[in-house]
């Protein structure tokens, strides 16, 4: 298959794979079996559809094929069938009744909550989400998390084993459980996005494909949970940040800071969509952390430049965010905003108060922010020391190159 027909078929597979896998996992209670028969159904479609054409209901065709493969496999292994039947009964018992929050049109919601279940290791949740809901192959997931393929394969196997052995049900939480469980799902997706927007290591500053995959996932979640304001907030936040992707690097891949970016290269369509979602995230009750962060991102995107940005409002929003989710990283970001509102000395005083925070000791943006403010205050030897500290912590080559240039500006004799 080549040309537009190929693209259409691939788009169908991409859209239907997660839905199919979720439905089969829910039906049979086994993620491995669900993955295997999902793959077999897609392989069968690759053979049949070029000859017969894409069926009017491709999802139904894939589901029928996959279920037949699963039933055939179970008939060949009675012990396996008995175990899966038990798991399926357990899952049915755990599922909320229709109308109680679990009767949803798309079973991917159940898979979102299974992959992000608090019983799983934190490092496994994102990997399993990319594997099952985004449809990435194990080597692709390994590249996403910058670990060897064998390591990632072990993580995925470990997570699936935990789901099986702990009898974690394939179900969405009821409405009474949702406030407790939803933040974990959102955190998994946001972690995937963050790695795409600001890579933790490697030759590139950004990995747009990973960020876009996270946006695709949260769009699915928004369709499944349209009334959840924090889902709207996360989508708004990611759109408003990702809209700047093309301006964040120069022609050679070098880092371009916010104040130096060509805002004409920002994606206005994406910004407008994000801006429409911010009132949805903030309305109807007390705001959540993602809604507040989206409001901060909106103020950046609406401003013509750094000088005309509404820094007092941004500081006020950081105050609110700190009340919702106290964090040294939020305090760091607030200090940077205070420096732009009240001057570098005020910002530096706040940063120095954070010097003992363990979470900031290995966090490159902290010494980078201190170095910048020290440089602006003319305290060049101290700025040079802070830039050297940041250089030792930076994860990507564009960040290191940027820091080397900044170091050379304050210490011409620096290596």
Automatic annotation (TrEMBL):
State the UniProt keywords alphabetically.
Sigma factor, Transcription, Transcription regulation
Residue span, RNA polymerase sigma factor 70 region 4 type domain: 115-163
Record bears the keyword Lipoprotein? no
Q: Which InterPro entries match?
A: DUF6596 (IPR046531), RNA_pol_sigma70_r2 (IPR007627), RNA_pol_sigma70_r4_t2 (IPR013249), RNA_pol_sigma_r2 (IPR013325), RNA_pol_sigma_r3/r4-like (IPR013324), WH-like_DNA-bd_sf (IPR036388)
Domain RNA polymerase sigma-70 region span(s) in chain numbering: 13-78
The reply on keyword Transferase is no
Q: Domain DUF6596, which positions?
A: 181-278
Pfam families recorded:
DUF6596, Sigma70_r2, Sigma70_r4_2
Q: Which domain of life is it from?
A: Bacteria
Question: What family is reported?
Answer: Belongs to the sigma-70 factor family. ECF subfamily.
Protein's recorded name: RNA polymerase sigma factor
Q: Which organism is it from?
A: Nonomuraea corallina
């Amino acid at each position: 298959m080549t040309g537009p027909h190929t693209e259409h078929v691939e788009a169908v597979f991409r859209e239907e794979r997660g839905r199919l896998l979720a439905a089969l996992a829910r039906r049979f209670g086994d993620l491995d079996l669900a993955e295997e028969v999902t793959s077999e159904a897609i392989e069968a479609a690759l053979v049949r559809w070029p000859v017969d054409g894409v069926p009017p209901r491709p999802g139904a065709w894939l589901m029928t094929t996959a279920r037949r493969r699963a039933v055939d496999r179970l008939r060949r292994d009675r012990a396996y069938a008995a175990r899966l039947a038990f798991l399926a009964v357990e899952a049915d018992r755990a599922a909320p009744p229709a109308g109680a929050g679990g009767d949803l049109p798309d079973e991917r919601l159940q898979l979102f909550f299974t992959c992000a279940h608090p019983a799983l290791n934190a490092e496994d949740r994102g990997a399993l989400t990319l594997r099952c809901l985004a449809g990435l192959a194990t080597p692709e997931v390994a590249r996403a998390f910058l670990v060897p393929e064998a390591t990632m394969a072990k993580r995925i196997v470990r997570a699936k084993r935990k789901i099986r052995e702990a009898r974690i049900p394939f179900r969405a939480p009821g409405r009474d459980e949702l406030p407790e469980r939803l933040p974990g799902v959102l955190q998994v997706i946001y972690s995937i996005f963050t790695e795409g927007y600001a890579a933790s290591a490697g030759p590139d500053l950004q990995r747009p494909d990973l960020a876009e995959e996270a946006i695709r996932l949260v769009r699915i979640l928004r369709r499944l949970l349209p009334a959840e304001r924090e889902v709207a907030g996360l989508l708004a936040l990611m759109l408003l940040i990702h809209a700047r992707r093309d301006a964040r690097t120069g022609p050679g891949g070098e880092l371009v800071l916010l104040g130096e970016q060509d805002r004409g290269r920002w994606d206005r369509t994406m910004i407008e969509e994000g801006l429409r979602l911010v009132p949805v995230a903030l309305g109807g009750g007390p705001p959540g952390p993602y809604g507040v962060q989206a409001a901060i991102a909106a103020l950046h995107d609406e401003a013509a430049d750094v000088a005309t940005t509404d820094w007092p409002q941004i500081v006020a929003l950081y105050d609110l965010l700190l009340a919702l989710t106290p964090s040294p990283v939020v305090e760091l970001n607030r200090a940077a905003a205070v420096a732009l509102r009240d001057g570098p000395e005020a910002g530096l005083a706040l940063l120095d108060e954070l010097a003992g925070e363990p979470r900031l000791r290995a966090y490159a943006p902290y010494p980078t922010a201190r170095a910048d403010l020290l440089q602006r205050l003319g305290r060049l030897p101290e700025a040079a020391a802070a830039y050297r500290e940041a250089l030792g912590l930076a994860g990507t080559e564009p960040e290191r190159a940027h820091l080397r240039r900044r170091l050379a500006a304050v210490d011409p004799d620096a290596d």
